[in-house]
Amino acid sequence: MVDATLECKRELEIEIPAAEVEQAFTRIAGEYQRKVRIPGFRPGKAPLSLVRQRFQDSIRQEILESLIPAHLRSAFERENLEPVSRPSIDDLHFHAGEPLRFKASFEVMPEIHLADYTSLRLDPVPEPPTPLDEEVEKRLEQIRNQSATYEDLSGDEAVLADGLVAVVSYDRTDEGEQEPRHVAESRIEIGSPDVVNDFSEHLRGARIGDEREFDIHYPADFPHEEIAGKTVHYKLQVKAVQRKQLPALDDEFAKKAGHESLEEYRNALRDRVRHQREHEKDEAEHTQLLDKLVDMHPFPVPDALIEHQIDQRLDRGLRSLAAQGLDPRKLQLDWGQIRSAEREQAARDVKISILLDKIADAEHLEASPEALEAELAGYSERLQQPVDVVRRRLTETGTLDTIKSRLKSSKTLEFLHNSATGKNPQ
After folding, report:
1. Which of 68, 257, 385, 426 has most Cβ atoms within 10 angstroms of its Cβ?
2. Is the pLDDT reported for residue 60 higher than 70?
3. From CA 16, how far away is CA 101, in angstroms rounded?
C-alpha cells in the first residue's frame, strides 16, 4: 500500500555555481578580516589567506546560512511551492572550487478539491434521556445538597452507615506515581450515588479514629481523566462522623439564591437547563457535521502540521495537569505512546481547519468587525487594560490573527450548519 502522506512530500536538488560560492567566501572572509584581531597584525591588516585559513569553519557556516535559504526561496518561487515544514538539508556537497550541491526535503499542502459541502444534511440528534422537569428537580436537589449543614455525632451514633457522612483525611497514590498526595479533609456520604461504591464498602461500620487502607480501580469512562482506568491506593483515617441536614425546599430557600419564590427559581433553572440542552444539541450537530465534512474529503495531511497540532494538544493537557497541582515529571508518562494516541484526533483537527479555511475563501467569509470588537472587549475586561492597548499587544504577539482565524472558522461552521438544517445562511 502506498503511503498517502507521500503526496505531501517534496524533494529538490539544488546546485549553486562555484563562482557564486567563491564570491560569498571572499565577501564573508573580507568581513572577518576587518573585524577580527590576529596577533602580529593591526586590525584589518591580516592577510586574507590567513583569515580564510584560521576561520575556515565559521566562514563556511556563514556561507551555508547565506546561500542555502536564498536559493531555496528562489526554487520555491520557481516551482510554485509553499512548504508547510522546515526543509531538511541532506547530501551536502561543499568543496573548494566546486559548486555547492544539496537536497532539500520538505512537505507541502496536498491538492484539495472541495466537494459539494452544501449537500450535507444532519441526522436527528437524540433527545436527552431525562425529561426537562425531572432534570430541573435534580438540579434543585444538587443545589440543596450544597447548602446542607452537618451535625457531629458521638458515642453509639458515630458509626458510619448509609446516609451518614465520613469526614476523612487520606493519602492517595495514583497508579504510576511514587509519592502520595495528602488531603487534609474530605467528606464522603456513605451509600450516596455520587460516591464510588468501593468507598462506602470500605467505610461502613468505621468509627472516629479508625484507619482504612485499600485500592480502588476506576473504570475507563470515569469522569476524572487523570485516574480513569487506573488503580489508586488510599490510606485513610476517619476524623468525624456527621449527619447531613438539608434545608427545606421552600420560598426562603429560593430567596437565598436571589429569587422571589421557589416557583420563580424553578422557572429560572428550567430556562438554564433548556439553554444548556440547546447548546449541547448544537455542539452535537457541529461534531456530526464536521465528521461528515472530513469523510467527504479524503486527503492526506502533512506530518509537520499533525505534529504541531499534537504539540498544542499536549501543551493544553500539561497546563491542565499543572492547574490541578500535578507535576507531569513525576507521572512517568510514556510520551511516545501519548503522541501516538493523539495522532488520529490531531490529524482530524488539522483537516477540519484546512477545510473550513478553504470553504471560507470559497464563500468569501470573514470574521465580522463586531465579533472581533466583542472579543477585544472581553480581553480588555479580563486584563483591565484599554482596548487599544490590548489590540496592540495582541497584534505584536500574533494572537490577533489567531483570534480572527478562530472567528472566521466559527462563522464558516455556522454557514455550514445553516445550510445543513435548511436555514438561510446570513
Report:
1. 68
2. yes
3. 6
Q: How many CA atoms lie within 13 A of 382 on its CB side?
A: 7
Helices (H) and strands (E) counted in the chain, each on its own, are 12, 8
Determine which helix (DSSP H) or strand (DSSP E) holds 376, and give its type and residue range.
Answer: helix 369-383
Where are the strands (E) in 271-353, listed by range?
none
Say how many C-beta atoms besides its own lie within 10 A of residue 52's C-beta: 19
Which domains are assigned to the chain?
4-107 (3.30.70.1050), 110-147+254-284 (no CATH), 149-245 (3.10.50.40)
Q: If pLDDT is split at 50, 70 and 90, which confidence band does 2 have?
A: very low
Pairing of β 164-174 and β 9-16: unpaired
Q: Are strands 100-107 and 9-16 parallel, antiparallel or unpaired?
A: antiparallel
- Contact criterion met (CB below 8 Å) for 34 and 50: no
Give the model confidence (pLDDT) of 320-377 as tens digits: 877 777 777 777 777 888 888 899 999 999 999 999 999 999 999 998 899 999 999 9
Residue-wise pLDDT for 179-230, tens only, equals 899 999 999 999 998 899 999 999 999 999 999 999 999 999 888 888 889 9
Q: Is 99 exposed, middle or buried (0-12, 13-18, 19+ CB in 10 A)?
A: middle
Cell numbers describing residue 288: 456530526
Q: What is the pLDDT of residues 70-123, one digit of tens each?
A: 999 999 999 999 899 899 999 999 998 899 999 999 999 888 999 999 999 999
In what helix (H) or strand (E) does residue 234 lie, and over which residues does it extend? strand 231-245
pTM assigned to the model: 0.72
Amino acid at position 12, single letter? L
Q: What is the DSSP letter of 86?
A: P
DSSP secondary structure code for residue 223 in this structure? S
Q: Sheet harboring 9-16: ordered strands across?
A: 9-16, 100-107, 88-93
Using CB atoms within 10 Å of the CB of residue 164, give its burial: 0 to 12 exposed, 13 to 18 middle, 19+ buried: buried
Residue in this structure with the C-alpha cell 547565506, named with its chain if needed = 66
Q: In angstroms, rounded to a whole number, what is the distance separating the alpha carbons of residues 28 and 43?
A: 16
Residue 318 or residue 241, greater confidence: 241
CA distances (Å), origin 401, targets 112, 296, 396: 24, 28, 10
User: In whole angstroms, what is the distance from residue 181 CA to residue 170 CA?
Assistant: 8
